[in-house]
Amino acid sequence: MELQHQDDLKHAVAALATRNADALDRLVWTGVFAAGALRDQARGAVLDQARSAGIYPASIHDLYAARGRGEVAPTFTVPAINIRGMAYDTARALFRARKALDAGAVICEIARSEIAYTDQRPAEYAFVVIGAALREGWKGPVFIQGDHFQINAKKYGADAAGAAAEMKAVQDLTAEAIRAGFYNIDVDTSTLVDLSKSGHEAQQALNGGLCAGLTAFIRARQPKGVTVSVGGEIGEVGGKNSTPEELEAFMTVFTAALREAAPGAEGISKISVQTGTSHGGVPLPDGSIAEVKIDFDALERCSTLARGTYGMAGAVQHGASTLPAALFDRFPKLGACEIHLATEFQNMIYDHPAFPADLKRAIYEKLRTAAADERKPSDTDEQFFYKTRKKALGMFKREMWGLAGPARAAIGATLEEKFTFLLDKLAVRGTRALADRWAPFVAGSFPSIGAAAGADGRAHEDVTGLSD
Ligand SMILES: [Zn+2]
């Protein structure tokens, strides 16, 4: 599928200008799977075309701030979709659903861990999302987010050198992501909350202080005219449920630390809380997902406090994609500002009747050895593969992008249906005008590609234990 020679590339670029869909598909492939100059030229051509079509990466900060001031009603919950496997087809399905519902308040995101195991550096991810928007005739702001830019507590706690190296890894990734057009970053230092200390402020001290430091780091690097939307997190997802008192303690620490690190700098726009869910859900021995009890009360109280006292958009719900369908319309009613959705889309791809059985077998065979160290003695095969198959998305990226046309179309249609359902329940239908109004194009903010965005040659990062 990808173009092999300069001549072919030139022809495709010429055809792209006449909105030739096949040429666009081949250029996106080339921008992902080719190397060197060919790859960079393909990326450049697609991004140029997207820019002239009125598509641009943007920050949701101003929309969230308007919601915090009460100028935008808190009646919708922004879905943040983690696009992992078959990224182009998945993103295309999302933009089709968005277009049909006129849904502007939607985020595409990828976590530090996912960047590694799905083999998608920020520049590639932004390129594929923008390419998909162009393919589906989208126009206007595209919110691309770094999710769980998380500190590994074990590495941070090892010693002073370990702490410095871990901070630098997150800073480097953040800088790389901003260069690629990620104007929304979820800082996650919640792994460093220390519940053994007495008093909420002491528990949140390291979390709030480091989050402020990373916020200052982001403010110093964001493009002129753009306020990157920064999210904080007060309780590690999968851990103890959050409370409004913890939110207050976090904000006290964070605000003081930010004032010191970057006087006058804009703070965070939202806060992630723990409500009882866990990333990916908990698979039972037969592979089905255990039901969870969500602390809706905590979510609502933290959202109200975040808006009323701190001018944020509200609280953010994680680990939500595998929840029962009947729950989704509760999130907008409770004032939750954002919800993170990931694993279910990956489940839908792997378990789709059109997904080739022989490829799935090959993937599972590979996982038996490649992910053997993650196997608990008590795991059934169903539990083991459910938990580890995300790790195969990078190893089998080319095979999954390269499924036969009818299989890709069938999977894309199923994803589109699911996205449509979720966007509707989360009440973001008709939010396009809001997004356009609060996230207009900022001259000079369109990311440059190639060497400047670069860093695709980075060594593979060990992300064991990090959230997604
Ligand atoms: Zn999450």
From TrEMBL:
InterPro entries: Aldolase_TIM, Class_II_FBP_aldolase, FBA_II. GO terms for biological process: carbohydrate metabolic process. One of its GO terms (molecular function) is zinc ion binding. This is Class II fructose-bisphosphate aldolase. It comes from Eiseniibacteriota bacterium. The lineage of its organism: Bacteria, Candidatus Eiseniibacteriota.
